[in-house]
Amino acid sequence: MKLKSLLLFNIKQNYGIFSVILGVMVLYLSVIINMYDPNGLEELIALAKFKMSSDLLTAFGFDIEKNASLIRLITSYFYGMLIYFVLIIYVIIVGNRMIVEHVNKGTMGYLLSTPHTRTKIAGFQGFFFITGVFLLLMILTIVGIVVSEISFPGLLDIKAFILLNIGMFLLFGMFSGISFFSSCVFNETKNALALGAGLPLFFIIVNILKNVDPSLNFLKNFTIVSLLDSDAIISGGNYFFSFLIMFISSFALYFLGVKLFAKRDLSL
Amino acid sequence: MIEIRNLTKDFGRNKGVFDISFTIKEGEVFGFLGPNGAGKTTTIRHLMGFLNADIGNCSINGLDCRKQTAEIMKNVGYLPGEPALFDSMTGFEFIKFIARLRHKTDMSLCSKLIERFELDAITKIRKMSKGMKQKVAIVTAFMSDPEILILDEPTSGLDPLMRVEFDNMITEQKKMGKTILMSSHNFEEVERNCDTIGIIRTGKMVCIEDIHTLLSKKKKNYTLVFAAENEALRFVKTTKFEITPSAFSSVEVKSVENFNDLIQELQLFNVIDIQSETYTLEHLFMQYYGGNN
């Protein structure tokens, strides 16, 4: 491969954050799966209410009935909020490193003084970025299934769990797309972060606020997190259309980022 | 061949380049002179395809610098004005990294260059001095044996010995028929190797001149130190040169076109020292505009 040395550089630069994020997610998910009790979740719910007010629990997505299934518990306790805050850290840090950091530092000048077009370099960086997000969620899916099967054989709705992760990947396709797009269009790291970190965090926080009180439910129209409808996935509802929207938006963000990067003035 | 036609890029507040045109023929060494902030680097950034011109365009070997950058880069060695190297790598790792991106596997030229410039290639770039980083950048620019070299202030940060070594290398490259664009704010740095000098000032080309024509116009100032004060006074009374007497026994002689004339005159005096003043770009401007710049 022609850009092999750039690939090696990217891996060396990012395997640390990749491992930490993966480790945290795997640990959380395993702990949450093992909190499950097939005979009813009364104890867990009582314990949670003891630690936090029920409003707060709802806000954080820790909202669950006492006879809920394992997939409901995972969806509520892990995919409800925790995963966003962990995975968004990877997206913000690595997205920033992909393009704008090279432009800001000037190292992009060296990359572009080699016989590779801007489209190729940026496209490659985008591909590396989204592949990282994909791998994180793929490994998480496998771990989730394996841990569930060991602790509670046959109790996990594997199909719904995989679909939930595909949905999460598409949602993070959009988050990483926003981060990558701003990495491509700005010359300075601080500006790229304002948009590339600010907007995803805004969406995630709005998603929490909308749960705080039923009167704030209208906020769901102001966050792209709403596109991932986990209830529809678990209960076999219609999620295809929102998956399609997320896929197209993600692709468009990456595509536009590369296009604009190829065209614009670079401060090198 | 490098061609720049009516290149204009307006950054506002009189910054940028305005209607720049020049051609560097194959095998020609072009010295691109101008004070800091005059537009040298902006012009070079257009050649490298980093910027879109407002008006005009540039081409290298007939290829458009903005649209066919990747194709052009196969034959170009680039030394940035402020080399931004990958500072997590060692010097050698960086050189190898770029060599691989350039699809260059023959590392023998690299090793020769590393040896020649006494580059300590195993230190992390983050820990290198400015001069050492500059050496890494020099090796990177020359290692693929490119036909065209674009060098933005190549000797900044180098010690005097390395400057001489660099000059020698440019002389060799010139003999090999390379086309070279070299920017500098110091005339003496480019005078030895360049065939043509282009001077840029506040974004506009003020002259593009053959080096021999330019050198023939070159006038220098000298400071003479006489053995005694009365010697100096005697010189002041009789000399046909333009002078400014300074402290005690020393005299400053201005605008000497023919050094031999001065030597001849001085044979009748007891001179203990001659210092030549550095020939700066300002002097060149002064001469070019007859002092009215």
Textual characterization of the structure:
Chain A is mostly helical and 268 residues long. Chain A has one domain. Helix content of chain A is 74%, strand content 0%. Chain A is built from 13 helices and no strands. In chain A, helix 1 packs parallel to helix 8, helix 5 runs parallel beside helix 9 and helix 9 packs parallel to helix 13. The mean pLDDT of chain A is 91. In chain B, the strands form three sheets. A six-stranded mixed β-sheet of chain B has the order 6-7-8-3-9-10, sandwiched between helices. In chain B, helix 3 runs parallel beside helix 5. Chain B starts with a strand and ends in a 5-residue tail after the last helix. At the A-B interface, helix 1 and helix 7 of A face helix 2 and helix 3 of B.
Helices and strands in order, then pairings?
The complex is a heterodimer of chains A (268) and B (293).
Chain A: H1 4-34, H2 42-51, H3 54-59, H4 70-77, H5 82-98, H6 100-105, H7 107-112, H8 118-151, H9 158-185, H10 189-196, H11 198-212, H12 230-234, H13 240-263
Chain B: E1 2-12, E2 15-24, E3 29-33, H1 40-47, E4 55-60, E5 63-64, H2 69-73, E6 76-79, H3 91-101, H4 108-116, H5 130-142, E7 148-152, H6 160-175, E8 179-184, H7 187-191, E9 196-201, E10 204-210, H8 211-216, E11 220-226, H9 229-238, E12 242-245, E13 250-256, H10 259-266, E14 271-276, H11 281-288
Helix pairs in contact in B: 3-5
